[in-house]
Structures are given as structure tokens and as C-alpha cells.
Write a structure and sequence with these properties.
The protein has 2 helices and 29 strands. The protein is mainly β.
């Protein structure tokens, strides 16, 4: 049994960790990783997180099985990917790997087999207080990303992009999925989640593919076509790398005014409490963002062998820091939101929460304002209270989406719930 000690020098969370120009301290190499995980507890029958002033929160549904990702269909039905990690027999080797695996179990991940399904939630009569629940698609392989283009519904499993037919109003898919494109999987598959978004014209699909390690400790050969966002031609299934050097690119969202694709990225561990910050960034086609050789531009990670100075010289700093080890996963644009100010014109971010930090970070949903197509200012808390006074995880937010009524939906994979955040001034009628 691995020991998890809270004895360490805590580095406080500072506003300088966030924003377009974060302050980066010197790296602190950790012979034994800092582990301050919040053990998964759950909410109990009536518990719930705290909503920001001017908003209110309610459980849309409880009792799901590790809900991680959300997708809202044009008719208003809400799809939930209930998913756990697939078998990864070669992903916990060495001391660091064993510590990471044990930490994830304490956090509520990897403790159960994956439900491997997508559940459909329907607002009866448009009322979010009355929910029909259907198993929409099952027998998947740790699904995460979802996208509808025309009458084709796409799912990013942990090792493949698949397609099934969809007709408006369907509550269950009975047809056998068609495999469109293989995605990196295998017996390591360290960052197994595969996010997905369609281009505005529907001709292309973009998939986030995470690295096969923390900082290339499994060798560079194991990272082939990983730590990147792929772009896939929908008609042929062929793919190419759209942007690379992204350790674990998860949430994908279009900024509608500029037409730029944004991504939320989890950075590497074991360099200290504040380093490097997780981030979101607008992607430039063909650009390299540093991993594994450097972080936040040209800050070299000396642990990586061999070095690649030429590639580091081309590394682009990301646009906005989201704090060290916050595990920022979910990402969605606010344009259809009916939440009050200040939650207009920006990105909602689901922060799953830290483990490799002496003071816990993340464990909340935040909002980042945009001006002229770029993020600005400090993150604003939207949904908090996911930690108990004893630092137990009552819940951990992951995917975020805007429903057809303009409320924010949040998938909570420890609380096994979907939370719905709406304008506090709205009554039952306006919530319909």
C-alpha cells in the first residue's frame, strides 16, 4: 500500500497563476510525487454544490455511473457519456505510475468497470424538472466525445471514432456502429479520453488525443500521433495532425466571432505546486505547443531525453493559464447561455481538481471572459463547494454544455450527477 502524506510545504494559490501572462516559478523536481488527493465521498441524498451569486443550481439527474461528458442535440435532448478508463495493464509501472494509479483510485477513478454507454435525458414538455431517461447507445469502449452532423452521430471511443445513424427524436440507437477511424489506444493509453467536435460546416471532425505518459517517460515512440488534436475528413476518414505538443487536450470549443478552435489542456506533473499551469488556447493549424520538451513556450523540461532545441524554439505559448494542476477538462462557449452577467461572452471551464499539489486546486467550474476574441481578466467562479471541510471530494466536475433553455449543465463523475445552473431570477415558467 502506498502512503499518501499531507506533510509538505504548501504553496498558496495566487492570482498570478491565472490569465494571459502567468508568473512561472522555477521548477521543483520531485523524487517522490506530491500527493494530496481528495478521496471520493459523494454528495449523499440531498447535497449539491454552490452556485455563484445571481444563479441557482439543481440536480438535473442523480444516480448515473461516472458521467463525464455532455452533448446537447438540436431537439434539446441531452446526451451523457458514462465512462471509466479502459483496461491499461502497462500504465502503472514504476514508482510514479503506481502512485498515480493509487491516487486516481482514491479520487474515484478506476474503481469500477466502465458503463460504456451514452444515456439520453429528455425534458418532458421542455421542463427540466421532469426528466425521461433512456439508454441511447451501449456496448461502447470508454466513450467521451460526441458530435452530430446531419443524420450521422459520431462517438470518440478510447481507441476509435465510430458512427451510427440518427433521426430527430431517437431515444435508442439499435444499428451496429461503423468504425470510421482508428485512434491511439493500446495497453498504456495513459490519457485515454478522446474529445470530439465538428467543424461549423460539418466536413471535418476534430479529436483531442492525450499523451501516453506524464513527460515522455515511456519513450518518444509511444507518443506517435499523441499529445495532439487531429483533424479527420468526415467523408474519407483520413486524418492529419492539426496541432501538436498538447499534453492532454480535452475540451474543444469554437469561439464563434473569430472562428478559432479552442482547447483545454492538462499540463505535466511533478515540477512543483504551481508548475506548469493547465491552460486553454486558441489553436493555430500546424503549431507546436511544447510537450514534452518544453512548457508554456520555451521553458525546457530537462527530464525529457533526448532534448529537441529546434522544436522548442518553435513552441507557441498558450493564450490563458488556468492554474497549476487544476485538471481543466470541460470547455464550452457561452453564446446560448441565459445566465446573468458576468457570465456572457466567454468560456465555461470544468476543473476536475488536483492531486499533485499540496494545496488542492480546481474542483470547481469557472468562467473566463473574452474580449476581441481573446480571454481576459481572472477566472470567475460559477460552481464551487465540491470539497468537504475535510477535503473529501463530494463531486468532481468534468464536461460542461449549454442546454436549449440557456442553462449550464455540468457532468459530475464523483457525485454521479448532472448539475443545472440557471439564472436565479428565472422562475419555473422561464426554465421551461
Amino acid at each position: 500500500m502506498l502512503a499518501f502524506s499531507g506533510v509538505c510545504v504548501a504553496q498558496p494559490i495566487s492570482p498570478s497563476e491565472f490569465g494571459p501572462s502567468p508568473s512561472l516559478p522555477p521548477p521543483k523536481k520531485e523524487l517522490v510525487p506530491t500527493v494530496a488527493i481528495s478521496p471520493a465521498k459523494g454528495w449523499g441524498a440531498d447535497g449539491q454544490p454552490r452556485a455563484a451569486d445571481g444563479t441557482k443550481v439543481a440536480a438535473l439527474v442523480r444516480g448515473l455511473q461516472h458521467p463525464r461528458w455532455l452533448y446537447v442535440l438540436p431537439n434539446g435532448d441531452v446526451l451523457v457519456a458514462e465512462s471509466e478508463a479502459p483496461p491499461k495493464p502497462d500504465d502503472s509501472k514504476g514508482l510514479s505510475g503506481k502512485i498515480h494509479a493509487e491516487a486516481m483510485k482514491r479520487a474515484g477513478s478506476g474503481t469500477n468497470s466502465s458503463a460504456n454507454r451514452i444515456t439520453l435525458l429528455r425534458y418532458v414538455g421542455g421542463d427540466p424538472r421532469q426528466i425521461e431517461q433512456h439508454i441511447f447507445l451501449h456496448d461502447l469502449n470508454s466513450p467521451i466525445g460526441m458530435a452530430l452532423v446531419g443524420d450521422s452521430f459520431y462517438v470518440a471511443d478510447s481507441d476509435a471514432l465510430i458512427r451510427v445513424p440518427y433521426h430527430t427524436g431517437d431515444t435508442e440507437i439499435r444499428e451496429q456502429p461503423i468504425r470510421v477511424t482508428e485512434l491511439p489506444g493500446g495497453s498504456i493509453n495513459h490519457h485515454w479520453t478522446k474529445s470530439l467536435i465538428a467543424s461549423p460546416d460539418g466536413t471535418k471532425l476534430y479529436v483531442g488525443v492525450g499523451s501516453n505518459s506524464n513527460a515522455a517517460e515511456n519513450g518518444l515512440a509511444a507518443e506517435s500521433e499523441r499529445a495532439a488534436v487531429w483533424v479527420i475528413d468526415r467523408a474519407s476518414g483520413t486524418h492529419r495532425i492539426y496541432a501538436s505538443g498538447l499534453r492532454n487536450p480535452v475540451g474543444l470549443a469554437w469561439e464563434p466571432h473569430s472562428g478559432v478552435l479552442w482547447v483545454a489542456v492538462n499540463e505535466r506533473d511533478e515540477l512543483g505546486d504551481q508548475l506548469p499551469p493547465d491552460y486553454m488556447t486558441g489553436l493555430r493549424e500546424g503549431a507546436f505547443y511544447g510537450w514534452p520538451f518544453s512548457y508554456y513556450g520555451q521553458h525546457v523540461d530537462t527530464r525529457v531525453k533526448p532534448q529537441n532545441p529546434e522544436l522548442v524554439a518553435s513552441a507557441i505559448p498558450p493564450d490563458y493559464a488556468l492554474g497549476g494542476h487544476t485538471a481543466s477538462l470541460g470547455l464550452c462557449w457561452s453564446d446560448d447561455s441565459k445566465l446573468p452577467e458576468p457570465f456572457k461572452n466567454g468560456m465555461f471551464v470544468g476543473q476536475h481538481g488536483s492531486w499533485n499539489r499540496s494545496i488542492r486546486s480546481g474542483y470547481k467550474v469557472v468562467f473566463v471572459r473574452f474580449a476581441d476574441g481573446k480571454p481576459t481578466g481572472q477566472p470567475i467562479d460559477v460552481l464551487t463547494g465540491f470539497l468537504s471541510p475535510k477535503n473529501e471530494a463530494l463531486g468532481r466536475p468534468v464536461g460542461v454544455a449549454i442546454d436549449k433553455q440557456g442553462a449550464l449543465l455540468v457532468a459530475d463523475d464523483v457525485g454521479n450527477a448532472i448539475w443545472r445552473v440557471s439564472d436565479a431570477a428565472s422562475g419555473a415558467a422561464s426554465d421551461k
